[in-house]
Write a structure and sequence with these properties.
DapA-like; 13 helices; 10% strand; 335 residues; 8-stranded parallel beta sheet; 4-hydroxy-tetrahydrodipicolinate synthase activity; Dihydrodipicolinate synthase; alpha/beta; Aldolase_TIM; lyase
Length: 335
């Protein structure tokens, strides 16, 4: 199948999966806060991902999903960021519904789709690789948007992918489809990403595929070692709190690797120290803690609250964040 048309090129770099802000009194989507998030991240040169795990996509109606995409596109265009693409989560329980959501995402203004495997029936399909491959091939064949595979097997994702974990062979097979343009590896396996990169960055692969294939770790605490292992960047929820720091790490690391400059590599390692510390704090804090950190340390009301039943940040989480984000926030505020 020929690849879907591309309106805005996807590029290497650091991307952030935005939280969907909900109003404290009604849990309705706060579109003004969302637009503020989008502009802040775009100004920091962070790529934009909506309707992912952090975005509580499973808590949104179809109308709200489309509204989030439209508001994001409006915010980008009105702030002079017309060139920035939107990567939108469209995965759900069946291939048919995933295709429908992807078409609706395209119609609302998304440029690319990121799709997680169906986790609800993981007891039936979690180890059935042919069934999972069939799911993705049906979606890839029918999707009007280029598709990124989302591998999220960890325990904290039990409600999303229920432990389904793809190995490099499985991803390499899907990467041969002309409508598959990348993979997000929230399994945190650098070796897996490198094996995929060896295949997709080969001359033979490039001859068969008109667009590059992107390998994006799902954490920023491994960004430097992942870049050394041929990754394209990262997609990190910690970008909601310290976006400029993560972009600085990415830029410094890429420059050091391109030039072989030892001083730059050491600077990248020191930045990675900061980011690794902050990233772990955000991972432990979860979605409620991330929203609290945004409201407390960035801008009041920017993150909003999670939708029930996701918990708000507990006193213990708030104390942990004050300590775990201290160095990262100090550096972020110096940029």
């Amino acid at each position: 199948m020929s690849p879907s048309a591309i309106s805005r090129p996807f590029t290497d770099g650091a991307y952030c999966p935005l939280v969907t802000p909900f109003k404290p009194d009604t849990e309705e989507v706060d579109y003004d806060a969302l637009r503020s998030q989008v502009v802040r991240l775009a100004n920091a040169r962070m790529g934009i991902v909506v309707l992912g795990t952090n975005g509580e996509a499973s808590h949104l109606s179809d109308t709200e999903r489309a509204g989030v995409i439209r508001a994001t596109r409006q915010a980008l265009d009105s702030s002079g960021h017309t060139h920035i693409p939107i990567l939108a989560g469209t995965g759900t329980g069946s291939a048919k519904e995933t295709i429908r959501l992807t078409i609706e995402a395209r119609d609302a203004g998304a440029d690319y789709a990121i799709i997680i495997p169906p986790g609800y029936f993981s007891f039936a399909v979690g180890r059935d690789l042919p069934s999972l491959k069939k799911f993705f091939l049906q979606v890839l064949d029918a999707s009007p948007l280029p598709v990124m595979i989302y591998n999220f097997p960890l325990n904290i994702a039990s409600g999303a992918a229920s432990g389904i974990d793809f190995d490099s062979d499985f991803v390499i097979d899907l990467a041969e489809h002309q409508n598959c343009f990348g993979v997000k590896l929230t399994c945190a396996s650098i070796g897996k990403g490198q094996r995929i990169a060896i295949h997709t960055q080969s001359a033979a692969y490039k001859e068969r595929h008109p667009r590059p294939f992107f390998i994006m770790p799902g954490y920023s605490d491994i960004l430097l070692p992942a870049l050394i292992a041929r990754a394209s960047g990262c997609i990190t929820g910690t970008g909601n709190v310290i976006p400029k720091t993560i972009v600085k790490l990415y830029d410094t690391a890429v420059s050091a690797l391109a030039t072989g400059n030892a001083e730059q590599l050491e600077a990248a390692r020191e930045l990675q120290d900061l980011v690794a510390e902050a990233d772990w704090a955000i991972v432990k804090a979860g979605i409620g803690g991330t929203k609290y950190a945004m409201d407390t340390y960035v801008q009041e009301g920017l993150g909003g609250v999670p939708r029930t039943p996701l918990p708000h940040a507990s006193p213990a989480i708030k104390t942990m964040l004050a300590s775990g984000l201290k160095r990262g926030l100090a550096y972020e505020n110096s940029l």
